[in-house]
Design a protein that fits this description.
heterodimer, A: 83 residues, alpha+beta, four-stranded antiparallel β-sheet, 36% strand, B: alpha+beta, three-stranded antiparallel β-sheet, 10 strands, 44% strand, globular
Chain lengths: 83, 147
């Protein structure tokens, strides 16, 4: 069986543009951020990706490969909290 | 001390965050949001980190579109932008599917350091508060070299 080699996370992102990714982190950069990893799965939506994390332990990166909002959309996020 | 590089063409400044919950630790991408007073995590993500939301306390939240209630949980640890906090309160809200991020990095986290943003080069830098004159000189050196 072929060994799965870690690859740069940016490379994985480019390959699966528009999908949610689950990546096992294998190395970090000098700032401590994920640098390389092994793709565990790619999913069409957030729920499917997070449901898949239920059976995975260890250092896993869950991310969307693409912009934070669809093209043509605008986002207004801010909120205030009252205790 | 290097700055964090963000995508100049992206609609938001997206920051990798390592969050440790009740049962698991995960890396996620959160949106930097200085308009949010608190950190926010998506409801599903909080559940997958092992939190029981039924027993969590709630708070009132005001947004531009109205008011609502949100559960509040304590993240065991959060690491982002070179800062690490323990037992940090995070609001739990269902984020819309169209928002492809699992949370918001709010002011309660960001205000623990000075935040410098270079929109020309896409660099974000956090520096500790100034302790004395010598420290200020050191920080200014870091600031100019990073930005």
């Amino acid at each position: 069986m072929d060994e799965i080699r870690p690859e740069p996370i940016e490379q994985i992102r480019r390959r699966y543009e528009g999908e949610w990714l689950l990546i096992k982190v294998t190395s970090h950069d000098e700032s401590g951020l994920p640098k390389e990893g092994i793709l565990l799965g790619h999913f069409p939506d957030r729920k499917a990706a997070w449901d898949a994390t239920e059976v995975i332990d260890g250092e896993v990166y869950v991310l969307f490969a693409g912009p934070t909002i669809p093209e043509g959309w605008e986002a207004v996020l801010h909120g205030w909290v009252s205790l | 001390m290097d700055g964090f590089r963000f995508d100049l063409n992206a609609p938001h400044i997206v920051v990798p965050v390592r969050i440790t919950g009740m049962q698991r630790m995960r890396w996620v991408n959160w949106i930097l949001d200085t308009g949010s007073t608190s950190m926010v995590i998506d409801e599903l993500v909080a559940l997958r980190l092992g939190y029981n939301l039924e027993s969590a306390p709630t708070v009132s939240v005001t947004t531009v579109s109205g008011t609502s209630q949100a559960s509040i949980i304590a993240a065991r640890q959060i690491f982002a932008l070179g800062m690490r906090v323990e037992e940090f309160p995070v609001l739990v809200m269902p984020l819309p599917e169209q928002l492809r991020s699992d949370g918001l990095l709010g002011l309660d986290f960001l205000r623990r350091r000075n935040l410098f943003c270079n929109f020309e080069k896409g660099i974000l830098l956090t520096l500790p508060f100034v302790r004395n004159f010598l420290h200020r000189c050191q920080l200014v050196t870091h600031l100019f070299s990073a930005l």
